[in-house]
Amino acid sequence: MANQEIQNGGSEKASEVTFSVVKPQLLVEAPKANEAVQFYKAAFGAVETARITQPKRKAEQEIPHIISAELQLAGSNIVVSDLADDSAPVNTVGTRITFSLETEDVESAISKAVAAGAVAEGEIVEEGACFGGRVGKVKDPYGFVWLISSPAKKPVADVEA
What we know:
By secondary structure, the chain is an alpha+beta fold.
């Protein structure tokens, strides 16, 4: 039975890691995240539930630069973000996607992913990173990037309409 569990992704010694949510992150050419958010609202009826903005850099800017926004769409949550220099690489068809998983035990989740064949990228970043508390990054064997974070400890600032 133990051998069958290992073949199915289980292990007698592995700690139990549970995830509360998976959030696909759509990376768009900077600085078009705000335009993308408006499109998803208009085209598909997405509802914006959170937003992280960069303060105005120039007095002539009317609205702050959006870094990331979380949307509810068809019963799922997605994150729309500007593509940063250290974001997921572009695949051969030109799309960009990063998956975000939330868990209370970031270290164990990353260790479990690495044990299964993923590669850890960088160090775990402390509070205030992304939409969660602590966050780490792994790349799976197929080239997809997964951000693994703890849930946000503080409520996100009011969302702009």
